[in-house]
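User: Round two. Same drill as before: sequence, then structure, for each protein.

Assistant: Same drill it is. First protein:
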Amino acid sequence: MTNAETLAAYARRAVPRYTSYPTAPHFREDFAPATYADWLRRADPSRPVSLYLHVPFCRQVCAYCGCNMKLAASYAPVAAYAEALHAEIELVAALLPRGMKAIHLAWGGGTPTALAPDDLAALMDRLRRHFTFLPEAELSIESDPRTLTPEMAARIGALGFTRASFGVQEFDPKVQQAINRIQPPAMVARAVEALRHAGVAHINFDLIYGLPHQTEETLLATIATAAAMRPDRVALFGYAHVPWMARRQRLIDEAALPAAAARARQSESAAEALAHHGYQAIGLDHFALPGDSMAVAARQGTLRRNFQGYTTDPAETLIGFGATAIGRSPFGHVQNLAETGAWSRAVFGATLPVGKGVALSPHDRLRGQVIERIMCDSQVNTDAVARSLGAPEAWCPEELETLDAMAADGLLARQGPAITLTPEGRKLARVVAAVFDSYLAAGKARHSVAV
């Protein structure tokens, strides 16, 4: 095969996104809530934590979405969900040491702004009763420009949010029709302006390539329109067509999806266009203006990765609230029950609503850090990571042989424990990271393609 064919073959590999290690399919369903309770009690009050609140409701359904979400046909289930969030915050806070500080807060979904402004404010008040937000803390929230009201925009600013994210995806009308997300550029611009006027200093956009009927031309036009609104960060994701997991994706005509080669060209052209508009490439799929905190973290080598993707969040403990929310601690990972009814019943029954989790072994910590540095820095020294953890290396001969084969194929350079991805290899960071995933071969989960 030619080098181009070899790289294309790597790009077609189905591998995890590595937002945790072990990845979520390897969390154990027999994980005991009592174990998570013990982790919470053992949290170090001298170290700030990160908080995540999941709101799985949307007012409109997007066909491409693979998230855990529900259509909010009326407000009653959203209001009931908010009450359960209050109860979960109290339940968790009662287990934590007093005086916990928070360095990062993220509201995700679904659409958190499906909450009424007063309900959002009440939940923020509840959090502030139990956590002291540090002056430098980032407070972020996801929103939908189709449903963001002026009242909610003003309240988000008044509550001290510092960052808001919008799922732009693609501005082309035909693509928007195919994915059931109609939002003209003027609509998005109004939402951005409303939040900036309210004092929200930083704006993120999500864009997607590989969508039905999408072409290089439509994607580049979208990027030019989006760049004119000057978001601080742009996440450029490849559409993951997983209809066996996300049933709503069955609404998408697979014949309208771009072929692998066209999808790869979209990814490359989009990255070049974002660079042309002044955005620094970060990790696998993020771009930021040079002065943004994520760009600074990437340059300083302090970029992190968690289940939200690339982040500047330095906390080792992330506490998740809400159905399907994922949390982590120095001891392991935990995920709440996904079904909102079961989650709510557990909370009101004074039981941590744990669905599954996994305790980390020294082996997991070592491999997890190596994978995170590959994903964040495009390089890693495995000896240095092992020394930092006081752990012996545990690489199999087959893994080293695979790395050497990747080096021969142009994905990376390896000098003993030092691994550096090439420009071509950076696009395939997930494939390189997968070499260190000791769970992958035995797993039954299906994953999206690397590019």
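Second protein:
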Amino acid sequence: MPLNNHFYPKPGHILMCDFSGFKAPEMVKVRPVLVLAGAIPGRSGLATVVALSTRVPDAIQAYHYCLPKASLPRLKRFQNSETWVKGDMLYTVSHERLDSIRLGKDRATGKRIYYSDRLGRDQMKKVYGCVLSGLHLSAVVQHL
């Protein structure tokens, strides 16, 4: 289910993204992403995201960053393995492709509970450095 019209992702949100319709070697499945840029004037309904992966890179590069487990949803998917930022895999996608991560249901109300935490400033600084490296702009990292 896509994001509702009342939720606008902000930098640091972790969401699920449906990449179906893309062509390999692009992302082609549903996978977690980290929001880099949310609402920007003149581009409503879009968010810039970077892909996340639970597979350790074959050769760890400057554009890879392992997120601390304490910053991730308390779900097996995120807690049983490492989660890596793939700073070389950036996308600007429609909110129609994005979905919140479901944590379960509130026992008292029966309403779904969604993961809404965001990465902090220090972690996002590392993520942005990782993304700049993925764009071959490593020289800019020192200015973050």
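Residues 14-143 form a domain with the SH3 type barrels. fold (CATH 2.30.30.110).

User: Perfect.
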